[in-house]
């Protein structure tokens, strides 16, 4: 069966103040797969993820999404961002409105979804992640794990084609990590395409179909997760796994 490579990265480079952070990265992603991106801090993982929806503008290279090079001038990046859900480390919820208002704002304002439809969808998604009883709560009343589950629902409200996760559990206390990973596992089982920058090696190994090891701004290894973890080839990856496993 032909691979549906709906997101293609070609020769991606990114520099900050003359320092190369990403160095000629080429890879692709197919629908319904879960890809984890692992590697040491400072290796370029989050920068790479943020370049996929142009939260960081690449210095060179192409990001081809649904056949369109979104790096090209005059492309409506906001239109493409609607198809890419993004979940950040620090939740980025609006503290001055309750959970429901956090969820329905973008669909109503950007997609012109009728308010009653947006509310119905928000309640349904909250039920899926075990948060229905907190619909009227404000973010400051929630635990870190609850905030991150709301942030995931907020991204799902836009019906994205792919979900981008930037270390979604790194700001959480250990006992809250599991509840967020459970939601992500359920999304994976439902066929959601996911690209996940993570320090959770167990998630990468057990849930991801594929894992990319990024170090020094380069892809050192990119292969099926079980193969990468069981038979690492790069000495740098061997060293990294020895420290984190």
Could you name the key traits of this structure?
9 helices; 245 residues; 25% strand; 4-stranded antiparallel β-sheet; 10 strands; alpha/beta; 6-stranded mixed β-sheet
Structure overview:
About 35% of the residues lie in helices and about 25% in strands. The relative contact order is 0.17. The mean pLDDT is about 95. The strands form two sheets. Strands 6-7-8-3-9-10 form a six-stranded mixed sheet, sandwiched between helices. The protein has a four-stranded antiparallel sheet with strand order 2-1-4-5, covered by helices on one side. Helix 3 packs across helix 4, helix 3 runs parallel beside helix 5 and helix 5 runs parallel beside helix 6. It has about 240 residues and is an alpha/beta fold. The protein contains nine helices and ten strands. The two termini are about 35 Å apart.
Low-confidence stretches: none
Principal-axes geometry comes out as: globular
Query: Helix and strand string, N-terminal first?
Result: EEEHEEHEHHHEHEHEEHH
> Would you report the number of β strands?
10
Give Rg in angstroms. Answer: 18 Å
Helix content: 25-40%
Total of helices: 9
Describe the largest sheet: 6 strands, mixed
The quaternary state of the protein chains shown equals single chain
Strand content: 15-25%
Major β-sheet strand ordering: 6-7-8-3-9-10
- Ends apart, CA distance between termini: 35 Å
Structural class: alpha/beta
The mean pLDDT is 94
